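wait is this the right file?? whatever heres the structure
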């Protein structure tokens, strides 16, 4: 029987359709890009000068404090009421969201790492460049005989990041570094590694310090517990400052001055010395009323100001001022024997 043209085309059409299905399946099998998850940044990285940085996840937390003056007075009975009333800039306690993960130094920047930066970059730290020096410990120094009555001697050219007035090893936190010095290190690392290093925002810093904790310190609320978890002003340091003995912790942390970084337990994010050892610069300008209008997502601090926020306390810091919520400040050119630094690096630059 003769086939019509339509009958003749049907087998050919079926064959072509089958070939098309096979080809489509082959292409689909070969191209699976959209179904793959993007590569995750590593949990820990190490940079040009040996700094280790930990990946801090995005998240939300309650920033600041809602503790009453009465509650603080009960916990810190040796402090006069004025000191407690002056903490109003930690309020109101407010929810903050850090929307992107970021890397943060696992440890404070050390003397050895800063020395390597200076050697490789040729950078001259501010205390040396302006020839006015920094501050340092001098057992013969009497603050009562000075106009400022500062606890440490300075400014004096004999003090700098190389000499805070006491011995330090390469694994101790670098001190007497200004905000400008910290910014210079971040800028140099950014250019060397084609990444974005910077100082943390104040909100990032407190989020990282807490490490998921909601207590006064990363390890709890009890001030006396600090001797086991941080290098702050305790019985070991009070030997050199007997006039401040009433503010010293009763316990011994084993160090009268700075300690090697990482000498105490890490917090919930795997960061060391977020409280104690050395104050840490942040990127933010300071405004005592900033929390009243701070945006809830990735706050960057005021647009301008005169002083930069520093956080975390030091080896000489009293327990009231070593709380996660405490805010302090200095001018960008300040260099002091209690102040160091810790940098962050944007996580998306490593992917």
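ok assuming it is, sequence goes like this
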């Amino acid at each position: 029987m003769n086939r019509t043209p339509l009958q003749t085309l049907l087998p050919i059409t079926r064959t072509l359709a089958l070939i098309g299905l096979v080809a489509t399946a082959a292409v689909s099998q070969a191209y699976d890009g959209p179904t793959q998850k993007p590569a995750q940044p590593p949990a820990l990285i190490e940079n040009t000068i040996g700094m280790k940085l930990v990946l801090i996840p995005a998240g939300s937390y309650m920033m600041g404090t809602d503790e009453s003056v009465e509650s603080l007075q009960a916990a810190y009975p040796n402090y006069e009421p004025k000191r407690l009333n002056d903490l109003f800039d930690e309020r109101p306690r407010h929810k903050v969201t850090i929307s992107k993960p970021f890397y943060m130094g696992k440890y404070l920047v050390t003397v050895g790492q800063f020395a390597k930066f200076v050697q490789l970059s040729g950078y001259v730290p501010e205390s040396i460049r302006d020839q006015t020096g920094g501050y340092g410990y001098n057992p013969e120094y009497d603050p009562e005989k000075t106009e400022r009555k500062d606890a440490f001697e300075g400014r004096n050219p004999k003090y700098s990041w190389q000499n805070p007035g006491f011995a330090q090893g390469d694994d101790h936190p670098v001190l007497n570094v200004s905000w400008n010095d910290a910014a210079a290190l971040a800028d140099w690392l950014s250019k060397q590694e084609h990444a974005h290093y910077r100082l943390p925002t104040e909100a990032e810093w407190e989020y990282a310090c807490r490490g998921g904790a909601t207590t006064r310190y990363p390890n709890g609320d009890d001030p006396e517990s600090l001797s086991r978890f941080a290098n702050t002003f305790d019985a070991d340091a009070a030997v050199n400052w007997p006039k401040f003995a009433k503010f010293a912790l009763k316990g011994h942390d084993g160090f009268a001055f700075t300690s090697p970084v990482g000498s105490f337990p890490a917090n919930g994010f795997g960061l060391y010395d977020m409280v104690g050892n050395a104050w840490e610069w942040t990127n933010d300008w300071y405004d005592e009323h900033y929390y009243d209008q701070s945006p809830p997502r990735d706050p960057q601090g005021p647009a301008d100001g005169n002083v930069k926020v520093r956080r975390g306390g030091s080896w000489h810091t009293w327990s009231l001022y070593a709380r996660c919520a405490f805010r302090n400040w200095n001018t960008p050119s300040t260099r002091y024997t209690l102040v160091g630094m810790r940098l962050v690096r944007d996580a998306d630059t490593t992917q």
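The CA atoms of residues 313 and 322 lie 5 Å apart. so i think its the right one actually
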